[in-house]
Specification:
Elements: H1 2-19, H2 28-34, E1 42-48, E2 62-69, E3 73-74, E4 77-78, E5 82-89, E6 92-99, E7 108-114, E8 120-129, E9 135-143, E10 148-156, H3 159-162, E11 167-175, E12 180-190, H4 195-201, H5 203-207, E13 210-220, E14 223-230, E15 235-241, E16 247-254, H6 256-259, E17 263-273, E18 276-285, E19 293-301, E20 308-317, E21 324-333, E22 336-344, E23 352-359, E24 365-373, E25 384-387, E26 390-396, E27 402-409
């Protein structure tokens, strides 16, 4: 019955999409030589993205206790995919991912529900299905802290080959039992940061637009909010919708005063710490595609999500210009910030992903981290969720299988 409900939901959201179609460390000296930007405070014990440590405080530690292939099957065939994202609702994990392993090879978003032992509870194909004009690419998930699962989704077309920026940002929310709360399509339009488009259309065509890839969702003040970035710019745009899907906020935040006007914001994640919204983000100095380094910062936002509060705190330092260090997910466990980030080599080679922990009561002091990904990766996706005293990290393999890892929090 649940599977039937999800099929119906997918159809509802797809119909909605078509109905709205008119309307997606370096050293300090290296930093100084590369760019001129404000001096930024660092955590009392920030970590280099190239290092791996055990616990550095008598607080908590991580122990990997299992790794499992969670790729679902249909009619005995694995339904592989890429760009997964996960959120915990109660004692279950909702893992969404993009896939083209369908009979028609049409791109779609599938949903796997897993228990705390990462055993499959249910599998729903076609949570969202897109045609050539609205192929789903990046999906990011969140919950309201209760029983509502929701996602922010980018759809794209072949615009990257034709110099048309028509990627779209969409959102939908469901009760955990599959009942639709709301769906909203074409919230924003964007242009992909993609080397083919830059090569074919020139940098100007890309840098003047917003990007709907890697949308960043957050549930805050009883609203469903999502942030997108401006290409080649230290700016965010945050949209908030209420439970009826009506837009209640549209804020633009400029980070140039703290990161410099030449900075680009990379992937990011939201968390709420002591009731206050924070964004965990990467600030990159360099071209949107090519050389450029990224460090990860914790930045507090105002309660109305319209401005920055105080100065950012660098928590992960990029080792050198050959790597792009990007945060993927952020979750709170008691007073500790858990993040996953990818230290991505050129063209995805020599990549590593980490699960890292920071103490928010000690100015985001680094506590511990573990390797969670040790192979080349095409997409910077390393989602993470926490249930009880266990952290769950997921990633795709080179053959697009989906892997789940469990880390005990001690």
């Amino acid at each position: 019955m649940k599977k039937v409900l999800w099929y119906i939901i997918g159809a509802v959201f797809l119909f909605s999409a078509f109905a709205f179609a008119a309307d997606k460390p370096a050293t300090d000296s290296a930093k100084a030589n590369a760019v001129n930007y404000p001096s930024l405070p660092m955590a009392s014990s920030s970590v280099s993205s190239s290092s791996v440590s055990s616990s550095t405080a008598n607080s908590i530690s991580l122990e990997k206790i299992g790794e499992y292939d969670v790729t679902p099957t249909s009619a005995g065939v694995k339904i592989k995919g890429h760009r997964p994202d996960v959120v915990a609702i109660g004692s279950q994990l909702y893992l969404a991912y993009a896939s083209q392993d369908t009979p028609s090879k049409q791109s779609e978003v599938n949903l796997i529900v897993l228990d705390k032992d990462v055993k499959q509870v249910s599998f729903s194909e076609g949570l969202f299905r897109g045609a050539a004009a609205s192929m789903p690419t990046d999906i990011r998930t969140y919950s309201d802290g209760g029983s509502v699962f929701w996602y922010a989704l980018e759809t794209t077309s072949q615009g990257m080959h034709s110099c048309i920026c028509n990627n779209k940002l969409n959102m939908a929310a469901y009760q955990a039992d599959g009942n639709l709360v709301f769906s909203k399509t074409n919230i924003a339009m964007g242009c992909p940061i993609y080397f083919l488009m830059i090569n074919n259309c020139g940098t100007k065509a890309v840098t003047a637009s917003w990007a709907t890839d890697d949308p960043t969702p957050m549930y805050y003040n009883h609203n469903y909010c999502v942030a997108i970035r401006k290409n080649s710019s230290p700016q965010l745009q945050i949209f908030c919708l209420n439970s009826k899907g009506n837009q209640v906020a549209d804020n633009k935040i400029d980070f140039s005063d703290i990161f410099g006007k030449d900075a680009n914001l990379s992937q990011n994640a939201f968390v709420v710490i002591d009731g206050q919204p924070w964004i965990i983000t990467g600030a990159e100095h360099g071209p949107p595609v090519g050389d450029g380094y990224v460090s990860v910062y914790a930045v507090q936002l105002s309660s109305n999500l319209s401005s920055v509060v105080g100065q950012p705190i660098e928590i992960v330092s990029s080792p050198n210009k050959e790597y792009k260090t990007r945060v993927v997910a952020a979750r709170m466990y008691k007073n500790y910030l858990f993040i996953t980030y990818v230290n991505r080599g050129k063209d995805g080679a020599d990549s590593k992903g980490y699960l890292a922990v920071f103490d928010t009561t000690k100015k985001f002091a680094h506590v511990t981290q573990q390797v969670a990904l040790d192979h080349s990766i095409a997409d910077d996706h390393l989602p993470m969720a926490i249930i009880g005293d266990q952290a769950y990290v997921f990633h795709e393999t080179e053959d697009k299988s989906l892997i789940g890892e469990i880390f005990a929090i001690k």
